[in-house]
Specification:
By secondary structure, the protein is mostly helical. It has five helices and two strands.
């Protein structure tokens, strides 16, 4: 069972060393996103652990998959620009303007989600 799963995971990669490299990068992205997410969640802020892990892991997966298939640096640059723009829109959704208090909330949340993905 595990051997079949390993074969399926490694089928598109040249060797097991490349698979290990991809897994290490994805785990690193997950851990770095978790660090920021835990800090935000422990302070009871919106966009906590899951949001930051998803943002960092998705970004890493997109960049790794594009570079693994041999995309040119120009193409990879466009993918990264699209990711940054998309995450910016997600962060913008967390910004609220409270008119009765003349206060804007969520700027740090938006910045932390954007920074985690970048």
């Amino acid at each position: 069972m595990m051997d079949a799963l390993w074969q399926e995971l490694a089928s598109g990669l040249h060797d097991s060393k490349q698979l290990a490299h991809v897994i290490i990068r994805l785990v690193a992205a997950t851990l770095l996103g978790a660090i920021v997410g835990l800090q935000r969640e422990s302070n009871r802020k919106p966009a906590g652990l899951r949001t930051h892990i998803l943002a960092s892991l998705a970004t890493a997966a997109f960049v790794i998959s594009c570079s693994s298939v041999g995309m040119s640096s120009d193409g990879l640059s466009r993918v990264i620009q699209g990711i940054i723009t998309g995450i910016g829109f997600i962060g913008a959704g967390s910004i609220l303007k409270l008119s009765e208090q003349h206060e804007i909330r969520g700027l740090t949340t938006a910045a932390s989600v954007w920074m985690t993905a970048a």
